Amino acid sequence: MFDLSFLLEDGYLKLFRDGVLTTLRLFAVSGLLAIVVGVLLTTLRALPVKLFKGFVIVVVEYHRNVPVLVQILVWYFGVPQLLPEGARDWINAGNTEFFFATVALALNAGAFISEDLRSGLRAIPHTQQEAAWSIGLTYLQSLRYVILPQGIRVALPALLNQSLLLFKNSSLAMAIGVHELLYRTRQIDNLTFRTFDVFLVATILYLIGTLSLMALSEHFAKRRTAPSGV
Protein backbone atom coordinates (compact mmCIF):
# COMPACT_ATOMS: atom_id res chain seq x y z
CA MET A 1 0.00 0.00 0.00
CA PHE A 2 1.43 3.30 -1.02
CA ASP A 3 1.53 6.14 1.44
CA LEU A 4 2.29 9.49 -0.11
CA SER A 5 1.30 11.53 2.95
CA PHE A 6 4.99 12.26 3.61
CA LEU A 7 4.89 14.62 0.62
CA LEU A 8 2.83 17.02 2.72
CA GLU A 9 5.73 17.41 5.15
CA ASP A 10 8.86 19.58 5.00
CA GLY A 11 8.04 21.21 1.69
CA TYR A 12 8.44 18.15 -0.51
CA LEU A 13 5.48 19.15 -2.66
CA LYS A 14 7.15 22.51 -3.25
CA LEU A 15 10.31 20.73 -4.39
CA PHE A 16 8.25 18.68 -6.86
CA ARG A 17 6.48 21.82 -8.06
CA ASP A 18 9.77 23.66 -8.58
CA GLY A 19 11.13 20.66 -10.49
CA VAL A 20 8.10 20.53 -12.76
CA LEU A 21 8.28 24.27 -13.46
CA THR A 22 12.00 24.06 -14.27
CA THR A 23 11.37 21.09 -16.59
CA LEU A 24 8.60 22.98 -18.39
CA ARG A 25 10.77 26.10 -18.70
CA LEU A 26 13.70 24.06 -20.02
CA PHE A 27 11.41 22.31 -22.51
CA ALA A 28 9.77 25.54 -23.69
CA VAL A 29 12.97 27.57 -24.15
CA SER A 30 14.99 24.79 -25.77
CA GLY A 31 11.97 23.87 -27.95
CA LEU A 32 11.61 27.40 -29.31
CA LEU A 33 15.35 27.62 -29.99
CA ALA A 34 15.27 24.19 -31.63
CA ILE A 35 12.62 25.38 -34.10
CA VAL A 36 14.80 28.35 -35.04
CA VAL A 37 17.86 26.10 -35.43
CA GLY A 38 15.89 23.54 -37.44
CA VAL A 39 14.49 26.12 -39.88
CA LEU A 40 17.92 27.74 -40.25
CA LEU A 41 19.66 24.42 -40.98
CA THR A 42 16.92 23.43 -43.43
CA THR A 43 17.23 26.73 -45.26
CA LEU A 44 21.02 26.49 -45.47
CA ARG A 45 20.81 22.95 -46.81
CA ALA A 46 18.21 23.93 -49.40
CA LEU A 47 20.45 26.66 -50.81
CA PRO A 48 22.58 25.71 -53.84
CA VAL A 49 25.85 26.23 -51.94
CA LYS A 50 28.05 23.17 -51.24
CA LEU A 51 29.73 24.79 -48.24
CA PHE A 52 26.38 25.30 -46.48
CA LYS A 53 25.27 21.75 -47.26
CA GLY A 54 28.53 20.33 -45.91
CA PHE A 55 28.20 22.37 -42.72
CA VAL A 56 24.63 21.20 -42.11
CA ILE A 57 25.56 17.56 -42.75
CA VAL A 58 28.36 17.76 -40.17
CA VAL A 59 26.04 19.37 -37.60
CA VAL A 60 23.25 16.82 -38.17
CA GLU A 61 25.54 13.79 -38.10
CA TYR A 62 27.23 14.96 -34.89
CA HIS A 63 23.92 15.36 -33.07
CA ARG A 64 22.52 12.15 -34.55
CA ASN A 65 25.46 9.93 -33.57
CA VAL A 66 26.67 11.34 -30.25
CA PRO A 67 24.58 10.60 -27.12
CA VAL A 68 22.60 13.59 -25.87
CA LEU A 69 24.16 13.29 -22.42
CA VAL A 70 27.65 13.58 -23.92
CA GLN A 71 26.57 16.66 -25.87
CA ILE A 72 25.32 18.30 -22.67
CA LEU A 73 28.57 17.50 -20.85
CA VAL A 74 30.65 18.85 -23.74
CA TRP A 75 28.77 22.15 -23.63
CA TYR A 76 28.95 22.45 -19.85
CA PHE A 77 32.54 21.33 -19.22
CA GLY A 78 34.28 21.78 -22.59
CA VAL A 79 32.92 24.78 -24.47
CA PRO A 80 33.49 27.35 -21.67
CA GLN A 81 37.23 26.63 -21.92
CA LEU A 82 37.15 27.93 -25.50
CA LEU A 83 35.30 31.17 -24.72
CA PRO A 84 36.94 34.53 -24.00
CA GLU A 85 37.17 35.36 -20.31
CA GLY A 86 34.54 38.12 -20.59
CA ALA A 87 32.00 35.80 -22.20
CA ARG A 88 32.78 33.09 -19.65
CA ASP A 89 32.22 35.52 -16.76
CA TRP A 90 28.95 36.72 -18.30
CA ILE A 91 27.64 33.18 -18.59
CA ASN A 92 28.83 32.19 -15.13
CA ALA A 93 27.04 35.21 -13.63
CA GLY A 94 23.69 33.63 -14.55
CA ASN A 95 22.23 30.14 -14.32
CA THR A 96 25.12 28.40 -16.09
CA GLU A 97 23.69 24.90 -15.84
CA PHE A 98 20.33 25.91 -17.28
CA PHE A 99 22.00 27.94 -20.05
CA PHE A 100 24.24 25.14 -21.33
CA ALA A 101 21.54 22.47 -20.96
CA THR A 102 19.21 24.66 -23.03
CA VAL A 103 21.83 25.19 -25.74
CA ALA A 104 22.72 21.48 -25.95
CA LEU A 105 19.09 20.31 -26.04
CA ALA A 106 18.09 22.99 -28.58
CA LEU A 107 20.93 22.13 -30.96
CA ASN A 108 20.23 18.41 -30.68
CA ALA A 109 16.50 18.79 -31.30
CA GLY A 110 17.15 21.41 -33.99
CA ALA A 111 19.32 18.99 -35.95
CA PHE A 112 16.57 16.36 -35.96
CA ILE A 113 13.90 18.96 -36.77
CA SER A 114 15.92 20.06 -39.80
CA GLU A 115 15.84 16.48 -41.10
CA ASP A 116 12.07 16.28 -40.54
CA LEU A 117 11.61 19.57 -42.36
CA ARG A 118 13.84 18.39 -45.21
CA SER A 119 11.64 15.32 -45.60
CA GLY A 120 8.61 17.62 -45.63
CA LEU A 121 10.16 19.80 -48.34
CA ARG A 122 10.81 16.74 -50.48
CA ALA A 123 7.08 16.04 -50.47
CA ILE A 124 6.34 19.39 -52.13
CA PRO A 125 6.12 19.06 -55.94
CA HIS A 126 8.88 20.91 -57.82
CA THR A 127 6.20 22.55 -59.94
CA GLN A 128 5.30 24.70 -56.93
CA GLN A 129 8.77 26.21 -56.90
CA GLU A 130 8.64 26.75 -60.65
CA ALA A 131 5.29 28.50 -60.23
CA ALA A 132 6.79 30.74 -57.53
CA TRP A 133 9.68 31.65 -59.82
CA SER A 134 7.26 32.35 -62.67
CA ILE A 135 5.56 35.10 -60.64
CA GLY A 136 8.89 36.76 -59.92
CA LEU A 137 9.86 35.36 -56.50
CA THR A 138 13.53 34.79 -55.83
CA TYR A 139 14.86 31.43 -54.62
CA LEU A 140 14.79 32.53 -50.96
CA GLN A 141 11.37 34.17 -51.31
CA SER A 142 9.88 31.03 -52.87
CA LEU A 143 11.41 28.98 -50.07
CA ARG A 144 10.05 31.31 -47.37
CA TYR A 145 6.56 32.05 -48.70
CA VAL A 146 5.68 28.93 -50.72
CA ILE A 147 7.79 25.84 -50.04
CA LEU A 148 8.71 26.03 -46.35
CA PRO A 149 5.17 26.68 -44.97
CA GLN A 150 3.88 23.63 -46.85
CA GLY A 151 6.89 21.54 -45.81
CA ILE A 152 6.28 22.42 -42.16
CA ARG A 153 2.65 21.33 -42.46
CA VAL A 154 3.64 18.00 -44.00
CA ALA A 155 6.31 17.43 -41.33
CA LEU A 156 4.06 18.46 -38.42
CA PRO A 157 3.46 14.95 -36.96
CA ALA A 158 7.20 14.23 -37.00
CA LEU A 159 7.92 17.63 -35.42
CA LEU A 160 5.50 16.91 -32.59
CA ASN A 161 7.23 13.57 -32.01
CA GLN A 162 10.49 15.50 -31.71
CA SER A 163 8.88 17.67 -29.04
CA LEU A 164 8.04 14.49 -27.12
CA LEU A 165 11.64 13.34 -27.35
CA LEU A 166 12.88 16.76 -26.25
CA PHE A 167 10.61 16.68 -23.19
CA LYS A 168 12.04 13.31 -22.13
CA ASN A 169 15.63 14.35 -22.88
CA SER A 170 15.20 17.33 -20.55
CA SER A 171 15.73 14.90 -17.65
CA LEU A 172 19.38 14.51 -18.77
CA ALA A 173 20.02 18.10 -17.65
CA MET A 174 20.13 16.68 -14.12
CA ALA A 175 23.67 15.47 -14.90
CA ILE A 176 25.01 19.04 -14.78
CA GLY A 177 22.89 20.13 -11.82
CA VAL A 178 19.80 21.68 -13.41
CA HIS A 179 17.07 21.53 -10.75
CA GLU A 180 14.49 19.93 -13.01
CA LEU A 181 12.00 17.23 -12.07
CA LEU A 182 14.40 14.26 -11.93
CA TYR A 183 16.95 16.27 -9.93
CA ARG A 184 14.26 17.23 -7.38
CA THR A 185 13.05 13.61 -7.29
CA ARG A 186 16.49 12.32 -6.33
CA GLN A 187 16.79 15.15 -3.81
CA ILE A 188 13.53 14.12 -2.11
CA ASP A 189 14.56 10.46 -2.27
CA ASN A 190 17.81 11.25 -0.46
CA LEU A 191 15.89 13.11 2.24
CA THR A 192 13.08 10.59 2.79
CA PHE A 193 14.48 7.21 1.66
CA ARG A 194 11.04 6.54 0.12
CA THR A 195 12.58 5.61 -3.21
CA PHE A 196 9.70 3.75 -4.81
CA ASP A 197 7.03 6.24 -3.70
CA VAL A 198 9.07 9.24 -4.81
CA PHE A 199 9.93 7.85 -8.22
CA LEU A 200 6.33 6.73 -8.65
CA VAL A 201 5.24 10.34 -8.31
CA ALA A 202 7.93 11.44 -10.77
CA THR A 203 6.86 8.76 -13.24
CA ILE A 204 3.24 9.90 -13.05
CA LEU A 205 4.27 13.52 -13.61
CA TYR A 206 6.40 12.58 -16.64
CA LEU A 207 3.53 10.46 -17.98
CA ILE A 208 1.14 13.40 -17.65
CA GLY A 209 3.57 15.53 -19.66
CA THR A 210 4.25 13.00 -22.41
CA LEU A 211 0.62 11.87 -22.75
CA SER A 212 -0.46 15.51 -23.03
CA LEU A 213 2.05 16.04 -25.85
CA MET A 214 0.88 12.85 -27.57
CA ALA A 215 -2.74 14.00 -27.37
CA LEU A 216 -1.70 17.34 -28.86
CA SER A 217 0.19 15.52 -31.61
CA GLU A 218 -2.85 13.40 -32.52
CA HIS A 219 -5.05 16.49 -32.46
CA PHE A 220 -2.84 18.32 -34.97
CA ALA A 221 -2.40 15.18 -37.08
CA LYS A 222 -6.18 14.89 -37.48
CA ARG A 223 -6.54 18.56 -38.33
CA ARG A 224 -3.70 18.51 -40.82
CA THR A 225 -4.84 18.82 -44.37
CA ALA A 226 -2.42 17.66 -47.02
CA PRO A 227 -1.49 20.43 -49.45
CA SER A 228 -2.78 20.13 -52.95
CA GLY A 229 -0.76 17.78 -55.08
CA VAL A 230 1.06 16.10 -52.17
UniProtKB/TrEMBL annotation:
Keywords: Cell membrane, Membrane, Transmembrane, Transmembrane helix, Transport. SUPFAM superfamilies: MetI-like (SSF161098). Residues 20-217 form the ABC transmembrane type-1 domain. InterPro entries: AA_ABC_transptr_permease_3TM (IPR010065), ArtM/GltK/GlnP/TcyL/YhdX-like (IPR043429), MetI-like (IPR000515), MetI-like_sf (IPR035906). It comes from the Bacteria. The chain crosses the membrane at residues 20-42, 54-78, 98-114, 198-216. This is ABC transporter permease. It comes from Pandoraea faecigallinarum. The lineage of its organism: Bacteria, Pseudomonadati, Pseudomonadota, Betaproteobacteria, Burkholderiales.
